[in-house]
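User: Can you help me understand a structure? I only have the sequence.
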Amino acid sequence: MDDPASQLAQRDPQGRHRIRVFMRNWDTRDERGECPSERDWRDVQRVCKQLDIKCHEVNLVKEYWNSVFSVALDEYQHGRTPNPDVLCNKEIKFGVLLREIARRQPGNSWFATGHYARAERKNSGEMALLRGIDERKDQSYYLSAVSSQQLDRVLFPLGGLRKADDVRALARNAGLATAQKEESMGICFVGERRRFDKFLGK
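Assistant: Let's start by predicting it. Here is the structure, written out as tokens:
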């Protein structure tokens, strides 16, 4: 029987061929002099090396700046409180990136993400967004602005799993270098240690 790492590297049970994509949205150094996306990219490369797979980096820094960062600042200036993660999912991940993937892989292509959410097709044919079963990690709110059309060919393989019990165990059993990686809670253009009010003040 194959080891867990080999199983992760193979095609999925439906026989679909998978292309891995790393989305770079921000390249400004944080308060420690390092770009968080660079750390994430190194982690991705470590895991890909372990699984003997390739991952393509897609640079969407310009698109993120124009469609998320600038929009968020404008909202704050007008006394409104935006959610950059909601904007990013709608405009970048399920917008620009999804269109880029469709362009590179025309035809019967699907888009799988690591969000803790689920989607199912209603009787009307439209896609309905559902909460992930892990109540502590559910990310359906951050996908609330994604349209039914954008969800039409999206897969959420983690939506039916619990992170602490299931996903961490899968990563540990596969011996992945990131199995015990800490949670990432900060907004990418603010950083995890910087005070948000000071960021806005500047």
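Now, to help you interpret it: Confidence is low (pLDDT under 50) at residues 1-11. The first helix runs from residue 4 to 9. Let me know which part you'd like to focus on.
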